[in-house]
């Protein structure tokens, strides 16, 4: 089961026992839901390919005391209706859950119109926006169940790639996977699959991040034994840099931010081919870390 399939399964289970949940779609994933289940079929709304309208309708649903879950492909959920998320949800202090699929370039064979590498940086500009980047379907399930009713706006970034194993992650917390003295490496969501072999036999602390915002600066301070910080993100690199500086501001640090380069990815190809082209592979990440520590 991939993350998108897990999303449907989790939402259907939650909707069956929580009448406040309403799913609002713009065609994408509508066919995956069980539309014949009378317990919640009327709370699955397909508004057609009108993403701005989808978000505004969801805001109206939130005003009536429901918990709207809005879903589409990353650029069509985050970039196209960004102003509606900002004005209709954040400025009115409403609560919604936004779940994307396809980031950063899972749909790369469709061209750059379907890329979504800038989603986290865009949404971090909105005060109070929570951002979750799970690494496995099971982690998404746990993180959504823990936070869906917390009264905040939360963005869940789903990915085709999953990590080789699942960890007992908690919302808002870093997981400590390894301790070392040469550097602290922070792997975000599905990047852990490449980071684990990249840091094998290296004397580093490895922290696994599935909640980007709010960032767990406390665990970072408690576990860091070096001034060298390596950040590996599956979107435009460096989004978490301000939070790292804020958490460790009492000590001089160096940060190497590894992620999708801030440039136009104009070539077609598979997600794996894009990873290889921009160096987001175990070998590419290890070379960057070794050069940084040299």
Overall description:
The chain is an alpha/beta fold. It has two domains: about 5-155, Rossmann fold (3-Layer(aba) Sandwich); about 175-294, Rossmann fold (3-Layer(aba) Sandwich), CATH 3.40.50.920. It has eleven helices and twelve strands. It has helices spanning about 5-15, 50-65, 75-80, 80-90, 120-125, 135-145, 190-200, 215-225, 240-245, 270-280, 280-294, and strands at about 20-25, 45, 65-75, 95-100, 130, 155, 175-180, 185-190, 205-210, 210-215, 230-235, 255-260. Strands 2-1-3-4-6-5-10 form a seven-stranded mixed sheet, with helices on both faces. It has a five-stranded mixed sheet with strand order 7-9-8-11-12, with helices on both faces. β11, α9 (about 240-245) and β12 form a beta-alpha-beta unit. α2 runs parallel beside α4 (about 80-90) and α8 (about 215-225) packs across α9 (about 240-245). The longest helix has 15 residues, at about 5-15. It is globular. The mean pLDDT is about 95.
Defining key terms:
12 strands; alpha/beta; Rossmann fold; 294 residues; 5-stranded mixed beta sheet; single chain; 2 domains; globular; 11 helices
Order of helices and strands: HEEHEHHEHEHEEEHEEHEHEHH
Radius of gyration: 19 Å
Average pLDDT number: 94
State the separation between the terminal residues, measured CA to CA: 41 Å
The biggest sheet amounts to: 7 strands, mixed
CATH class of the largest domain: Alpha Beta
Strand content is: 15-25%
Structural class: alpha/beta
Biggest sheet, strands in spatial order? 2-1-3-4-6-5-10
